[in-house]
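Ticket reopened. Same input as before:
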Amino acid sequence: MLFSTLGLSCFWCHNLEFKGRDIVSIEDFIQTEINHILDVAKSMEPLAKGGSELLKGKILATLFFEPSTRTRLSFESAMLKLGGNVIGFAEPDASSTRKGENLADTVRTVENYADVIALRHSLEGSAKLAAEFSKVPIINAGTGSEEHPTQALIDLYTMRKESGKIDGLKVALVGDLRYGRTVHSLAYALALYSVELYLVSPETLRMRKDVLATIKSKIPVTENANLEKIMPQIDVLYVTRIQKERFPDAAEYAKVKGAYRIDLKTIEKAKKDLIILHPLPRVDEIAPEVDNTPQARYFQQVWNGIVVRMALLSLVLGAVE
Amino acid sequence: MLFSTLGLSCFWCHNLEFKGRDIVSIEDFIQTEINHILDVAKSMEPLAKGGSELLKGKILATLFFEPSTRTRLSFESAMLKLGGNVIGFAEPDASSTRKGENLADTVRTVENYADVIALRHSLEGSAKLAAEFSKVPIINAGTGSEEHPTQALIDLYTMRKESGKIDGLKVALVGDLRYGRTVHSLAYALALYSVELYLVSPETLRMRKDVLATIKSKIPVTENANLEKIMPQIDVLYVTRIQKERFPDAAEYAKVKGAYRIDLKTIEKAKKDLIILHPLPRVDEIAPEVDNTPQARYFQQVWNGIVVRMALLSLVLGAVE
Amino acid sequence: MLFSTLGLSCFWCHNLEFKGRDIVSIEDFIQTEINHILDVAKSMEPLAKGGSELLKGKILATLFFEPSTRTRLSFESAMLKLGGNVIGFAEPDASSTRKGENLADTVRTVENYADVIALRHSLEGSAKLAAEFSKVPIINAGTGSEEHPTQALIDLYTMRKESGKIDGLKVALVGDLRYGRTVHSLAYALALYSVELYLVSPETLRMRKDVLATIKSKIPVTENANLEKIMPQIDVLYVTRIQKERFPDAAEYAKVKGAYRIDLKTIEKAKKDLIILHPLPRVDEIAPEVDNTPQARYFQQVWNGIVVRMALLSLVLGAVE
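Engineering reply: fixed in the latest deploy. New output:
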């Protein structure tokens, strides 16, 4: 079900009505809605620890056409903690796609088996297409280099929980801003708040033009920022992996892969209450020595993935308002 | 447990006793039994929507040695909707088969972990072999080019639900009748009813001789039918995929793959109440423009997969009579 | 949580306190503890048949970086029979490892999704490493050629159940004693009891020196035993697969693969109450004709895997004392 395809401003959508809704792009949400999702996520914390029957009898299908540990297992754990169940596949080779089935048919099949679908796919636009064909809500679990809206919600939740607020934060996005789908969704989301944004990346991995145009019209953005210089001012250091698998050219990858490695020296002059986030997995972007600093919050971020996804599943299935 | 290996007519089997029984071949069933399965499937419709605890505490193992979206996820959804649980694998590489284990040993292992096993395998006879060794019921979820009995039951259920009857129908089977396991099982099943059958296929993909001999002894069969000519008379158009993966020769595949493509023009002169079925996945056999015609029922067919498999699981586990 | 890393004798561990404990190596246990696990396993027999809610709301993550039918499905079945749920992956390709994530990060991620982790990995030491980083209990489900402690517990449980005792048994370990992780764990475990051990293997597959040194200091061990000669005396014939996948050299494998094949002739002079065990999968080491002898107990051994793993899960999660 895709309301944005009507080309309307979707009054219904902005009425804090989430039942039956797709989570395709972070751009489909206004700030009030995002705040509501974060509030519901907070209310899920005790259920995530103690268990719940909120979605008893409901089935989540996880259709992962690209590999994932975190996102898939986190969706599955969230669904199970709500008393629901899970079916799905973890890679396209175990599915009918190998026999030539298109995504629209896969979706019109699986909607008969499940009450909600979490989709990861290598193609941009695939979540939107799936939503157009599906009778049950589609949750975008990462599409190509484009978007990863649930990760952006987790990032916002972590900022609010760990820094106590979102408005007023100075946030640096570091690493691969071109192919990294999480930073695209996060940039869109942050642009809904009063945030100052600093972009730090190798020249070849600068933020996508379309994303940049959107966010610059809303919040102050410093492109090509010098990490050392801004370190003493920033509140959030958001580090991303240089994604080998998105590079068309291996030589290009080799040139930039170690460009921004965060170690103890990098954060020497940081604020005491700086928080360091990373959507994970990481390879070399953050040295292990950083893991035990009070600033490191990327593993707390993982936990937050559970409660945010519990909130989204409960909302689109109408189990909470 | 395989009663048919006794070479007896199996009085027990025909006594509408399903508990502990294997579902290996559609040929093991008489019409009364099939009708009973379809009746039980109908009684599952409300449970498929509202949930149930009928198989609480029971475990289904899905052993899929060949890829599948539909069949595996549909069995799993059916089991979960009945309150049961699922273990299994979606491809042989993740199993001990890679270490050289034979199927008999795999079955004698898994019977300790599960109450019922759904098996998909590339080898003909594998479901029968598994049933010979297993202490728990084996459900054939597709074996080689041979049989796919649960799909045939879904097809019958769909005909009865959508056309209101099975006896009296004129059914055309179109496409790959040689390698397509679903049409073999379906042909056997239809031969138990008063049905007129039309076979439409490229010369190299004509119906297997052994299947043909059996069905011709029971019902009127028109081989090598002209699709255009029979279109105004038929009640059911059953289309199948030309299965690339079953062809020994790629050139042979290329020659026939587009042989019978159903589009709006093809069904121009069809009856109003014709129904078009397809076991899915489809590649090019049915044009997307057909999806929105009132005749298209292949996605309803997918839903019917849930209730038919719920019926089979409940029957062989003795949860319903 | 790894207490042994403290370098202490771990008073706490030997106090029959299992809650929160890792199952990394059989060497971490004293006999009293093993006996307790076997007692708890015995108390799980009715629950394995009738179902239970002992671990309702708990989640097991099965992280299998190497293929497995038996161990993974058996852990999953055990967890489901206790009313818990399961998430996980069956092979590394479907995980973030493909993106370069290290095991420590994977564990620190998954501990947020699950209450206990069962880990299979090709690297020796991986379970220990995982336990060092994990906040939730790690159960070693097989690491490299090193250890497979839960299999050893199953073997002991089977001996006690089928032979009525462990102390006093004469046990022959046959086959690949070099690369076979199950025999390493089993040898350590047997050395805690009053057992006589006979080692039978090709010259190139003799028992690892480190394991040998440990067990020889505790119990009588006959190396390089002649199978035919000892057959009339032994109580347990423990056969293992020559594991092709652990051999660096294919020619070396070809030389020894059929070295010790057990058939009816081999056991002609065996005791009436000999029991034949095998951790499975088998390839050619035991002829199928042996399967129906009263001595064959390897498929009973499979069932015992369920109750032993139910016991371990319940113990480390604190559901039983």
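Confidence is low (pLDDT under 50) at residues 2-13 of chain C. The first strand of chain C starts at residue 59 and ends at 64. Please confirm and we'll close it.
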